[in-house]
Amino acid sequence: MEPGVRARTGPPQPAAPGLWRVRTAGGGGGGGASSWLLDGNSWLLCYGFLYLALYAQVSQSKPCERTGSCFSGRCVNSTCLCDPGWVGDQCQHCQGRFKLTEPSGYLTDGPINYKYKTKCTWLIEGYPNAVLRLRFNHFATECSWDHMYVYDGDSIYAPLIAVLSGLIVPEIRGNETVPEVVTTSGYALLHFFSDAAYNLTGFNIFYSINSCPNNCSGHGKCTTSISVPSQVYCECDKYWKGEACDIPYCKANCGSPDHGYCDLTGEKLCVCNDSWQGPDCSLNVPSTESYWILPNVKPFSPSVGRASHKAVLHGKFMWVIGGYTFNYSSFQMVLNYNLESSIWNVGTVSRGPLQRYGHSLALYQENIFMYGGRIETSDGNVTDELWVFNIHSQSWSTKTPTVLGHGQQYAVEGHSAHIMELDSRDVVMIIIFGYSAIYGYTSSIQEYHISSNTWLVPETKGAIVQGGYGHTSVYDEITKSIYVHGGYKALPGNKYGLVDDLYKYEVNTKTWTILKESGFARYLHSAVLINGAMLIFGGNTHNDTSLSNGAKCFSADFLAYDIACDEWKILPKPNLHRDVNRFGHSAVVINGSMYIFGGFSSVLLNDILVYKPPNCKAFRDEDHCKNAGPGIKCIWNRNHCESWESGNTNNILRAKCPLKTAASDDRCYRYADCASCTANTNGCQWCDDKKCISSNSNCSMSVKNYTKCHVRNEQICNKLTSCKSCSLNLNCQWDQRQQECQALPAHLCGEGWNHIGDACLRINSSRENYDNAKLYCYNLSGNLASLTTSKEVEFVLDEIQKYTQQKVSPWVGLRKINISYWGWEDMSPFTNTTLQWLPGEPNDSGFCAYLERAAVAGLKANPCTSMADGLVCEKPVVSPNQNARPCKKPCSLRTSCSNCTSNGMECMWCSSTKRCVDSNAYIISFPYGQCLEWQTATCSPQNCSGLRTCGQCLEQPGCGWCNDPSNTGRGHCIEGSSRGPMKLVGMHNNEMALDTSLCPKEKNYEWSFIQCPACQCNGHSTCINNNVCEQCKNLTTGKQCQDCMPGYYGDPTNGGQCTACTCSGHANICHMHTGKCFCTTKGIKGDQCQLCDSENRYVGNPLRGTCYYSLLIDYQFTFSLLQEDDRHHTAINFIANPEQSNKNLDISINASNNFNLNITWSVGSTAGTISGEETPIVSKTNIKEYRDSFSYEKFNFRSNPNITFYVYVSNFSWPIKIQIAFSQHNTIMDLVQFFVTFFSCFLSLLLVAAVVWKIKQTCWASRRRE
């Protein structure tokens, strides 16, 4: 299956407009309702059909001309006048703020699909400490881009309790319940933001104050509390429990008395007898069936809820560390859960790392290793910190590993990690993939060697894989391999999205293999390994681009992968009478059961789900044992059925698997390189070194084993997704225009050289001593080779083996520096790792080294004056990209909106978190909707105080307007809530507190949070009829006195001033905000019309006169003033100087529109900068063309060699095309010249005729003689 990709090459763009859709009622239990649900689904359906009919009628006319239909407004003169907060030609879209004070009601975005790029905010106001319930009857928005934020209070500074996005309540729900969100402050603030990609049907939300949860689900009655009369609760029917009476218990009375009994007084569940199990005691022990349960977890603080945390199992405890939460003030970094007693405990840790999410955990003995992740509470950076938590002492310590070789330690998030002991007995933690804010999506493996505290990025073999963010991985002890599934990746062609890939990484051989993909793309899911099956649960499965196909943000998909058979199976979803959709959760395995904790599903989850798979011991015969599953792998051993893990510890048994056939050509075509084509389980072959086809297809030159593949640089480079990661590989270069990493040309080293890694190598078989060998290399612009990488060593050893006719044991660039120190020619030390001395070497007499080709190739020492059979030269790669521009600063290092958005669509600025992120990583940078709004071009003020009008102020959800006592529209925009302005009281956690002194009511200041005051004249006028500006003063104009009058500029909003335009007399108006003058004369430029456009042949001085275009004689010039930039031009001027003193000067001018013409002259060319020097010649008005000739005698060209003519074309309208020419030529030909020319031509023709006649006579005479 092709990976699901999002084709956005930048942030979302508007989709093509489509037909508006009316929401219909959803089916299924719980009863959904569409928007504008007022009194039942039947009424709504009629309402929808009525709307379609009305909408079809008004589409051809004014919005309410025929029907008078305005959804949230009134029809006046055939036009809809919308109520506050509503926009659209029929007032059908929300865009503003609303306040709801009724005990119950509905809120919606409108009757049709919501508007692109909109912000809507609702404040539901009850009374202090009242319980307010929000019931989401319908919710459908673009997943991960369009969000609804719910706050438990009257501002966005109140605790955030839910972030909704995607298809929360689809039209067909199955067994899913309608979700509810509860606030307890007596208020609820809901803020909705949508971007510009595509829109969906929106939402319909019912709210009620002090009502029973979910109407007691139809399994109880709503009862008033005796202790607190204002509160109600559900009194559940028998065999139903839970706050909403939504959890059944003791089904079929637990099979009493044989299977168990029902505990009606305690925890209200089935207590099974020893030989029975399951939620209703209906399954045998052991059982051939699987089941899910929700354990009764002992009450604990809600701060347990989190997502993108990590969990590991140690004994009977599940240790949970880190994670994302809405509020870190009471967040516990380290928790443990007792899997036997179902009790949470908080670790007593005094100091340790900052809170983070997207990190990795791996357990080794008593230590938990935590690497990387995003530190949410500081500057939001991704870290490369390595922390170790000791379980016994419950204390943290940091590690600072040494990075080996030329490697790189990548700071990543969304990666995974495993610790294992290699065949070499080295204990290593392997870090897989992840996203780096600097290097992008990484495809590298990182190794941390625990005993030596060293860090290494090893070279891998096999398939060329693409790394990403949010995958899952499991380690299988039997195959000594890590299995990696899914993730969010950047893909070729500037695409990015989810994938369903499955890779296998063999830890000892460092080899990648591509396995069968699942067919279900996802990221931020979980994976565990139980009895030879990798179980995948949940995740984010949304991969839509321009329209929705129903993929949900939150999934409860349950998949199983059979490791032995390379087969995927779909398992039944949990049937737990409640939604269990989620992503960002964790999973561990204990006693063959999977425990899932937390995650995100609009709210942060703190529940635990338990999956009990079938038990192999329950299968009594061989056939059922071998065919057990899906989701379990069993083997028949000595007349007993055993689990795959216990019965196949040595990996010697072969599983019974379905017959597997080779893939079709179409399936193999997806692999673009030889290694990936041959290192997979699909049965492909690499054919003719250019394409991947089925192994069953015919091929003239076939490669079926990856070890025979020649790895091309382009296959490596196109996996590198950022300029920084591309620049680390010297074989690659970054194409700024295409925004992709490309391979450098193959001829970088020159003829006879081989491009190996970062160097060029050349082997020569001539017999030389060390100094002559070094001189030979020097003459080729190189040196004797310093073989410091394994890739160089492997190449040289392979090449010398090819010399079969002669012995080649070449010099290499290694010599003794002093009595005990050997070093390479490039001054790097010899480490005896990539190359080793042969036994007995180095000897005392040798000071230079050569490579001996023996049974085991190695180094030998020889006197430098001795001869050796061959030499190896090395020189650096000459990159054609050496002089290319360096990489731009990564998005994550840009700290302001202006520098973040300065390079087009590469970066996106999040104003609410003040972070700059790469456009192809926006979703993974804010997986839980942390960004309230983003920008790619126009930057809005970063604080409320920078917003100058009330309208701008209330567009930002965190701001309110303080209107000053003048009531003319002046005021201040301040951070605040519905109760008043707020100020920052805690720098560490950005805590805000109410401070009414910032807008004192006793001084007649007025606080506005929902709607602006009626009078909005920006302090330049009072109002009549409450909202009409009486007379704009202070040089302002506009409906709200928001603009400067023509001829003035500035920002008059909120009492600002207007200033007269300064244009040097060459413009009457300027830009109303910047003051840049709109110069009226073509060729004059500058903000104040102070310069001539000298680059385009305009001369003069506009500060003392004007500018002229300098014309050449005997050329015709055409001036097309057609562009928008020419709109303000009404004049253009020219100058010309006669080139010949004895010829008249002719002028010709015509234009497409009428114009005025003035022509003057002066004896000296000063470009008319001094008034009074010029003498008028011609003055015409309202003409289209003019021709004239100026006599050289009359204007005395001979005596005035600097005579200059000035042409002024003015008073024309835009657009216009003008043609003008000055010329000098004679009108009467010189008679002497005429006759000389005439007789010369005549005599020449006469001579030619005489010669032709003579030749003709000669020919005739010759014929007569014959």
Automatic annotation (TrEMBL):
Signal among keywords: yes
Domain CUB: 94-210
Gene Ontology MF terms: carbohydrate binding
Annotated InterPro entries: Attractin-like_CTLD (IPR034011), Beta-prop_ATRN-MKLN-like (IPR056737), C-type_lectin-like (IPR001304), C-type_lectin-like/link_sf (IPR016186), CTDL_fold (IPR016187), CUB_dom (IPR000859), EGF (IPR000742), Gal_Oxase/kelch_b-propeller (IPR011043)
Disulfide bond annotation, renumbered to this chain: C212-C222, C236-C245, C1032-C1041, C1044-C1058
Membrane topology: Single-pass membrane protein
Entry's localization field: Membrane
Domain annotation Laminin EGF-like: ranges: 1015-1060
Protein name: Attractin-like protein 1
